[in-house]
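re: ur question from earlier - yeah i can do the single chain one, its not a big deal. heres the input i used so u can compare w yours
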Amino acid sequence: MRQGVEALKANEIVAFGRLMSASHASSRDDFENSSAALDTLIEAAEAAPGFLGGKLSGAGWAGCTVNLVRVDQAAAFAESVRTVHARKLGITPEIHICHAAEGALGREIA
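and the output i got, formated as tokens:
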């Protein structure tokens, strides 16, 4: 977590994305709390335009990922992931494009 905080403080978004992806790999490989559907979402995301990093979200075993994407490529990213995932698993995922905002009360993470 500290590396992520430091990357964000230094505005090193690419490094932060790599940390997100490493977190997913750890969840998948070390804790085995991912699933084929989640791994397929991440694989589709990694190949999509604008991808910077991604990981499962929540407790795993379900079907939600969070991806860091270049803002100017968000729509193309979403369409690519939607198409690839539907082709591979026969399920069209819901994709929500969100934008980062200042945290609760604007506080920094210690």
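The two ends are 10 Å apart (CA to CA). not sure if urs matches, ping me
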